[in-house]
Batch of 4 targets.
Target 1
Amino acid sequence: MNTELQAILGRGWKKPPLIKRPWLRWLLLAGFVAYLVAAFLTIDVNWARVYEGLERGKQFVLAFTSPDFVSRSGDIWDGMVESIIMTVAASVVGIAISIPIALGAARNVAPLPVYLACRGIIAISRALQEIIVAILLVAIFGFGPLAGFLTLSFATIGFLSKLLAEDIESMDRVQAEAIRASGARWSQWINYGVQPQVMPRLIGLSMYRLDINFRESAILGLVGAGGIGATLNTSFDRYEYDTAAAILILIILIVMALEYLSGIIRARVQ
Amino acid sequence: MPVGDRNGAKVWRRRTQTESLSHWALWLTGVAIFAYCWQQISGATTWFFVWDAPRIAEDIWTRATPPKWDYITQLGKPIWDTINIATMGTLIALCLAVPVAFLAARNTTPSALLVRPIALLIIVSTRSINSLIWALLLIAIIGPGVFAGVIAIAIRSIGFCAKLLYEAIEEIDNTQVEAITATGASRWQIMAYGIVPQILPAFAGIAVFRWDINIRESTVLGLVGAGGIGLQLSASLNVLAWPQVSLILLVILAAVVISEWVSAKVRGAII
């Protein structure tokens, strides 16, 4: 019997700690606590204001039980339709652009210069948030859904190309080689060797991105890029909580429906 | 195998007649929908501004470069606030997400009929509304400031963390739980020694992943008045101080890249 076992025999068992070295464990813990204290001290909360706000919070929660779809129904309808139109158009264009970029960003399909260029595009698109892109595009293209549409398309490229490129890189080489061995051109190789392998993933990702685009389109209106966000912002500013609750319920319902739909489609294609 | 007929010779085809017909119908509907959407967008657009866009873009570019570097001395506190919003928001969200996840997972929920739908509803509704909208709402309720940002990030993150966590709980190895049960452990002991050790790596991964996303989101929360560096951004945008805007954008970009790097490192170390 080894000495390690000898030492713990006859004593109660204790869970081994996550971090073995005690000094590191205590240092991390102390640092974390110090950070928390520092953070707490710098966040100045006006508790009187918060307490005042609880009443309005209660009103808002109650508004969810009696949402007002009627009195601003025209605005809500227009905003929702604009959001959906932006979502659909941006998803179509974004997916169409991201497929060639994904092919370029897959190391087993593209040569190195193309690979680097496409990876650069993906990195830029992923690093910039939608809302910041929307602010710049609104400044350049003016208010309206065109700015929102361009923003969402741009954001779609980064997301979809990256994930699709990873899928292309991890595809089965054998099938693609078999097509190439039969004397296929490059376009035929992509069409019959690569595309069937990544199609289920592409459809699944596209549905997921459609879902994300709709959620994002709800906030683009805050900076003037069209969609339901402007209506929502106005209703908050006017303290019309029942209208705001109605819009939020609609957003949640549409997102749930999209998620359900994409679940069905993904289950069918995979 | 679908076979076509070309001058009497049999030729391989990818799809049968009906298949390709339905494909075409599907594509036609898709293109029609897209054309309609595009028509609506272009109808709502002032095309004069769009044709003018290259000039405007160039104008903004010349105004925004070079960034006003000495403005960075005023950005220390906003950056600290931004990091605090993300970190505190993530911590609060994790505390709330753990019970929700346990209630939502099929194998740990106390009642699949009554409690699980409520937990799932919490997950869906907090997840489908963007943190900017939560911030907007909280500012109307509890007033502008960092606190509203923290709560907004926390609420938004609950759904995300709880969803990933409950999926991890549903995928645990049941034999370990059975082994703990066989020793005569109580319900809480099973939880602590059978389930928690199995989901701990997933939990840590989710926490860091969400923290990274929250850093991104908290940089723009200030646009609606919820504190952080976005406040400076919106102030600079409102007075058209483009050199300051470009510096803030650079700082945000750096923060996003660093947080992504940190989260990738930490996740690599854990998993």
Target 2
Amino acid sequence: MATLARPVNPSRVILAPAAPLTKVLGRVLIYGVLLLVGLILFTPFILAFLGTFKTNAEIIAWPPRLFPAEWRVANWPELLNTDVGGLPRAEGATSLGLTAGVFAFFWTFLLGGLSSEAKGQGLPRSIGLPAALALVVGVGLAGAWYVGLRFGAKPVLSWSTGIATALFALIGLGVLAMSRPDWGRVVAAMAGAILVGALVAVLFEQLALAAGGGRFVRWLFNTALLSVVRAITQVIFCSMAAYAFARLAFPGKNLVFNFMLASMMIPGAVTLVPTYVVIAKMEWINRAHALIFPSIVNAFGIFMLTQFLKAVPRELEEAAFIDGASYFQIYKDVVLPLARPALLTLFILQFQGMWNDFLAPLLYTQTPDMWVLNVALSLFQQNYKAQWNLTLVGAMINAIVPLTMFFFFSRYYIEGVSYAGVKG
Amino acid sequence: MAKAAPARRGIFHSARARQEALTAYLFIAPYLLVTLVFTVGVVIFAFYISFTSFDLFTTPRWVALDNYIKALSLRGDFIRSLVNVLWYVVIVVPTQTALALALATLINVKVRGAQFFRTLFYAPSVTSSVVITMIFWWLYLKTGYLNYFLTQLWGLFGAEWTQVEWLNNPRGLIQLVARAMGSDIPSSLWYLRGPSVTWMAIMFQNIFTTAPTFMIMFLAALQEIPPTLYEAASIDGASKWQQFWRVTLPLLRPVLLLVIVLGTIGTWQVFDQVKILTAGGPLDTTLVPVYLIYARALGTDGPPQMGLAAAMAFLLAIIIFLFTFLQRRFIESGTEQY
């Protein structure tokens, strides 16, 4: 949809050979203007990039020079190894690992528990359902226990983490239960998913620990992990909700949908203070929880995907339904592949959203081991004793990722904008 | 299986409808959970604490309208921040909208390598505001490139440019005019001084970052306009300029509204640049509501005043709603002629 190609303007085709000189001059003029404006908009980046190779004395000297007197490439590795004195603390690393683990668990469970046929085989529901529910409670308890183990006496944090984890397990179980599953498979999938979740949690925890505390590498790790986790969770949960809004009938649908649209109008400033209070009360301050759990879905993402799905013909899904597929199977096997471009758009926008977020990480993180790049960068002037050359290296590293993404995926950025704004 | 169900559940026609509804509820459950806690719950909670004195650690104490009265007192910080941010909205929104439209029209030409230019144009928008702010901080230094550029420019005309400390200059725009004419505006009449030099430097940076974002919105809309319309117009003898005013602009009206409304909502809530560059200074000339809310909620000076911060947030929200409502009325009433 929204193809960028346009039928060739016939008048242009006819006129082109008739006036070649003005045409060429016009082209040159257009390129000249484009280049000039582009250069103006890009100049700060060029200056900053050249600045990363200067010494700190040179970079703030008057008059400023464009090129460094001597190219000091060592600034780049120097920044990566500078330590502002944060300790590699286990708690922060645990919370990073856990948030990744919870969603690894959720998705593995849903995919593993899905059976295409084999109804009524294996475990009867009267045994399978209680067993699965027991595992849900077990997941919550395991999460709470592990957090308690790592953080010492912090009961509220343990319980809020445990309950959040168990809730996701419960939602996953509900979704599977609605598709008349093979219960033996559900229980096995849950057990397997617990294992996967735990492995992911421990793996990322250890990676974070290896990346150290107050070092640039750790901030890069934090930012990348949080951005990927946020983008993936948004894609999963927004697409699930969008499928329900676009395809399924349920009482209260219009009410919820209109409420969602209205909630997009609430300025972020209003929810800032009380959200901080709630997060503080759950002891989520300085934990990855605070940056992930409140933003696993958002109204804009659901709205965008719903608009997209409404425009997609539903014949395929109806055919699948007649073949006896459950709603979740249709969602996973038919809808998700169809919606791939829109999902990629959402992924990119959300990844970039987290990567560039400043206010939330600033509010919810405190110690250097939990900072993301933006927070660290904004505090560089204190932490690096006004070392402008290192600050600029940090800024450049931070900018490279979104710039590269835009260069390769700019079509999806434009489509994201047009789904949400222009056609909505 | 379609027959048994109606007896059990009144609202659903069949077992299939019931199953469909239950599945749907499960699919939107994550959204409902998050929104119930972090939107509905939190707004109600904010409304409650805006009537209390609350420092996060003790129980909230009911103080009725005290917070609102305190926020709206004429000598208070909040009024000051509103005046500052009003200047910001009034200057930044029209400028960035016009610039975005100009950029979009420019980049919409069909030439080879448009993709490359698009990335170049969009660069300030995809990178985080913190990155841009840090770079501009450095460009704005007394020995920075902006002063250097202006020195060279003035030098071309044989004049001398005195280096300005862009981020530490509280003099207002109107005050500068008054000084040029030999008088001054006393600090008791601060609201007549106009936006300070520092504040205008931040405005410039914000326009620079936001215009490309909205450029993409205009670009998406421009690409939806069928080329036949332009052909028809050019056959009727309309010049390129007339085509822009008579064809392009009317068709862009919905996007224009969207860009203006989003721009307004965003500029009223400016935060990042102020937090990093000035912390509200110099002489409170860059103090903005969201920074004030942040500072009061966290208690950067004194104990946290959650109640006051929540009250200020609600007042700000009311202003934003009013503004967007008026804009909508204004622009939509203009649409009727088409």
Target 3
Amino acid sequence: MLKGIWGSDWFGLFVVALVAGTGLALFQPAFLSPFNLYVLLISFSLWALVAMAQMVIIAIGQMNLSVGAIGGLVAISFAGSMEVWGLPVPAAILLGLAIAALCGLLNGVMTHVTGISAFVITLATLSIFKGLNIGITEAQPFYGVPDVVKAFGNARFEGLPHMLIVPVVAIILIWLLFNRMVLGRQMLALGANRHAAELSGIRVGRVVVIAHVISAVLAAMAGMLAVARLQLGQPTIGDDWLILSFAAPVIGGAVLAGGHISVIGTCLGVVIVTLINNALVLLGIDPFFVQLFLGGLILIAVGLNRWRERRLAPA
Amino acid sequence: MATATTGRGGRGALGLLASNEVGLALLIAVLVAIFATVNPGFTSPFNLFALSRVMGIDMVIGLSMMVVLVTGGLNLAVGSIGVASVMLGGWAMQVAGVPVLPSMTLAVAFGAFLGWINGQLTVRMGVHSFIVTLATMSLFFGAMIVATRAEAFNALPRSFVDLGKLRYGGFVSGMLPLALIVGLGLWLFFNRTSLGREILAAGANPQAAELSGVRVNRTIVVAHALSGALGALAGLMLAARNGAALPSMAGHIGMGWLLPAFLAPVLGGTLLTGGVVSVAGTVLGAAMVTIITNGLLQLQIGEFWVQMCLGLILLAAVLLDRARSVIAERRRSVA
Amino acid sequence: MTEPVLAVEGATKSFPGVKALDGVDFVLRPGEIHALLGENGAGKSTLIKILTGVHLPDSGTVRLFGEPVRFRNARAAIQAGISAVHQERNLIPRMSVAENIMLEDLPERFGFVDYAAVNERALLWIERLGLAIRPDQPVRSLSVAQMQLVEIAKALVLEARILLMDEPTASITPHETEVLFGLLKQLRDQGAAIVFVSHKLEEVFELCDRVTVLRDGRNACNGLPIGELDRADVVRFMIGRDERTAKLGDKPVDAADVVLRLDGVATSLGHAGIDLELRRGEILGLYGLVGAGRSELAKALVGIGGVTAGTVTVAGQPAVVPDPTTALQRYRIGYVSEDRKGEGLILIHDVGRNIGITIWRRLSGWLGWLGEGRARAACRPFVEKLAIRTPSMGQKVGNLSGGNQQKVSVAKWLAADCDILIVDEPTVGIDIKTKTDLHELLWELASSGKAILLISSDMPEMVALADRILVMGGFRILGEVRNDHDYGRMSTAIMGHIHAAEAA
């Protein structure tokens, strides 16, 4: 049991996160202030969903460049439908999820039917979704977000932001999907060896499409949370998700070629990125360093993963 | 300048017509005819000058991506490298007082160096260049921002800024011939040198190339360095056009270049899986993208819808290309 | 006579450049083990792939219990009660043995995978196959033979009425084979219909009831009872009557001129204590089962997978080969890979570019300049010498037939003009005529002073060509046989070494 934890993908990360957190708490008492923790959890909520959205696609051995564009499109549709059409909040949420499902369906069906790499397809759809976003908003935000949504974005319970519930539920469901459900196991089998999955009678097309829909829905949730947090439907939501969406799963030990991901690892990846961001702010380090750190972190994580793989590989 | 690796043995005139390059050229002709008829302003010398200038820059950006696609890899950091190199060049010109030509050489060399880093990391770590360049795109851009404090160099020497105003025959920007010369050089490199051939072979099948005595890792590093140098060149062209070296000129962490960078080679028939290159296709692909963008902007479509149109075009192009190869395959197996 | 469970009538299937199946008939009855034989490229795998839903036939019908069926994908075939052991590896390395075995149909409880049931049901088949592994062990921790058996368990667990086994014994030991055969016979007696594809005729005669042989995509025979045939008949069906034996003249071997010598070589791939001497003008055979470490040894010699102990001597000088480039340029060693498509050729490039790759550096001038005309001209003599049938140097290699592809991958090394040529399974999957051509070519190359290390699992080929045969197993040299070109004696001697090693 202990050996299992030690050898797991995420144990090292857990230690890193713990040490980083403790270090920060010791050197910067402000770190443990309720407000700072609240801010941390808010950004964790958003990033975790973004990272999961990409992780699901990494699991099947593809990549989804359009995660941010879907998030952005859903965000402005969500805010816009409430402001312009006066849609009630639940209806707007449903609309957002439906748009996302449609986007995911488009990505999935096209990659599967045409056999063109997901990279190219999602590059094109990234441009289409983002283009729709800009076309609809003319690059201006929707300000008319209902108070309920704004309140949800600000609400907290004993220091915990209400919106944390969304990623927590999503993470549990995704964990169950990949570790306990046939569909998730089929996704991993497909990501590891597509041909073998086909010969084992797995409906590859169906699994690919579902993965893309799940990914899009997760991105949509992140987009709507972003609206609640920013209190407006900003067209630029999602623009800066790309790097993080890959960084967290890769830091968490995902194999980019497919077939292996770690839900807990990805979450810890998000935690580590959030902590570093927070540290830079708290320690008064130039915020410009954030990019530098994120880039370096990805390289280190990939390097470590490779090193571990080589060490574990039978001689 | 057909697809470099395949002689079109036995396919004849019909085969040539069906080739990607000819298709693109015809499409461009049709587009130009439509835009020129609908909007006379399209063919005004002023617009043609602006168009040819952007076209030249986008061609070099596309070629910069192409040389890495050939290896079966990607370079997401083109934009970051371009901006980082130009900021160094701008600093050399404006602050350090280095003459223009050495400064430009420095910028290109620095671009090549950053590309070399990408190549080395890819080869040493044995991971796909996607993840490596994803990281370095953030890394290079972050380092550039930290070094420059996000400030522009907007007092560049006259002689450099004048390069952006160079025009031939009254309406062709000097940028376009420059891009075409770069393209020709790359065509010769991939078709008429042993190293270029080896890069193609390694891109198509690294195991086979390695066993045939090709140093595959070296070809990857060379391709990345070349890509970096071309990215820097594109950056210089852009800076000359803008009259300033701006940290923001390739968008957020250089991602603004990614769409043109992929559009041109993919439209031109360069395979993402590597081993097949079409320099002419990339050049034509870039030309088409610029013409469409320019034409749509002129047509009052509204700048806000241009990006979606480009996305739709990319999608349509890859779907058509796919359909074409499927049909060709079927025909061959029936025969 | 019982009703057939499965009947194929006039199946035809074309791929770009080849007609893989041309009106093939095949009838499978319940309670039989039916051998499907043929040379590589004869169409066996295509037929199997049609029956498992990987390919659809262009024409012809497949009847299951008399009803015509068309399997659009593997799932449809599985649901119709056909399960298969495929030739290629189809396991998910990171998943457990049990999950791999049960992947077709993972048992669920309340919407979640019931891992207890997965392990329990998998364990049953693990035990029946005599495998000493745990069901929850990850597949990537297994040996090649164990993986092959897991692959078999994966097919058996479906308890299908029809079981297709494509080369199931390629990488398992005789003992494991025996257990497997016992199990297959038991299943047959319970009424299952089994199709058995193998290259090992001994196994076919031991196990099977009837035989269908394919040759060049057609039936050479259709469901003959095995009792009515002997080995020679089957071979005649497989290779046709017009077999031409290679004309091999006298070939002097200069025993004193050792061009390659290994002393106690160990490699990072797992070889140990390898001693070997290869002489000028000699063809040295390296025989062994799949997984014996032959190709790996070849790769280590050209610098892929390092030599960790012992010495390699090339032409009398101690040699260190860090990579294939050095092997080619400094030591003049070439390796013709067994994996033509994966490692030998660049299918999307043309003939000229495939052959020329080894000599571009030598041909190019200032700044690496190399004109297309000059490059192609240098390749042309080899296209002619090997009689490669291609419309032009500009033809994509992927569009050539298997035999011509193999000639291209050999031509590349002729162009490189190596002194030592390692040739790995040179005639797998190619037609008889090309095979004979290649045999003559290898013989001629050796006669002209090259040293050839021939890796082959084709015993007749080995016996025809080699001067000496080294038998390999478990990444070690098991013994040496001096070839007197008598098939019976040689095969007994070779198998003797393999069995002795297994018994030890």
Target 4
Amino acid sequence: MLSLKDINVSFDQQQVLKDFSADFNENQTTVIVGPSGSGKSTLLRTINLLNYPTSGTLNLNQTSFVFPKQYPAKEVSHYRQNFGMVFQNFELFPHLSALGNVIEGPIQVLKQSKTAATEKAKVLLEQVGLAQKADSFPNELSGGQQQRVAIARALAMEPEFILYDEPTSALDPELEGEVLKVIKDLAKKRNSQIVVTHNLNFAKEIADHILFLEDGQVNYYGLAEGFFSSKNERIKNFTKKMMS
Amino acid sequence: MDLMSIIDMVRQALGPIFIAGLQVTIPLTIVSFILALIIAGITAVSRISNSRILRFVFATYVWIFRGTPLIVQLFIAYFGLASLGLTLDAWTAAVITFGLNSGAYASEAIRAAILSISNGQWDAARSLGMSRLKILQRIIAPQAFRIALPPLFNELISLVKGTSLAASITLVEMFLVSQRVAARTYQPLIMYIVVAFFYLMISTILVGIQSYLEKRTTKHVGGNTHA
């Protein structure tokens, strides 16, 4: 279980997460929703320690971080291996082929052999429907294809959780579907996923749990059904606005 | 003076200048530039490190070597240090000075190239659990190399021409040879045009190498391939 307790994150005096506490379970898809600027992406990046909290505790299984203490870079890198991250702008490595992107982590970080990593990468690319594109470079792929490679890259590390930071916001509507389908398939297979999205229709389809973040604090955290049938005025307003 | 004797004089000068180029100017440039690249790489990485001391030390180095004339640096290395009992031969003094001087400029090209790679690339590599050194080596360097290529070749071309200053510390490179021929033949105009032509040839070859390397490396990195 991933557990955040009393987490505070600030940038330049501005507090983005305020005494944030939540637990995230394995084998579930949790979708984080909320208005722009509510701290959704910051929360996701904080989970992966791409941002450092000013205070609070972060627990994953046996590992524990208590802030504001500074931890050695090695410990942080090791912790990050528990998470695969998918970014809004894909962030594939442009100098590496699709296959090269997927095997980079396993070879460089997990010290797998090139043969073993390549074999597994091919299975993953197949899984995201891009077996034919293994040798293509990112600039030869559409946005949707790039994002699917990015998902394969994250999966190749066999992370505990996959974190998605608005994975389809940079995509044309007609390319969105292919990426959403991959995430949905992974949800069905009971992967542990945390997804930040604006797309509430999609959230409804895949979420076991919804976390509604407002102004850096948890407004709702519970079953997805409960969120979409909530009588709470704030939630009703939000879902109405976002799903119209 | 008739045309035939001019042609004859040029022909006689070509050999010694060519040999000086082959034996001194070109090796001096290559060795100095390799040294410069090593220094520049270390400097650039140190200047973006978290260590305030490292940043200060290397920023000071760049400040001094960019802020003082190359010829003064050569004189300090060759004549100045000798007065302290540290006697360097002309070749060594030239390599060290050119390496440090060029390294200061090249480090800025490399530093700028590294900083131009988006934070998203760092984040993506970090999220794979890569260490800072590994990220620099595997993800940033290959992309930064392409971006740094044009300014680094600028630096290399200016270094080729800069080696002519080594004549002033008695190193017998192309320019010093041409000076000697000019003194002997009383034909400074012709001789200096001939040696200028040699520098131009070397630069032209370097421009060719640059455009070849750019074509090879721009294939997938960076959005712009219209050149």
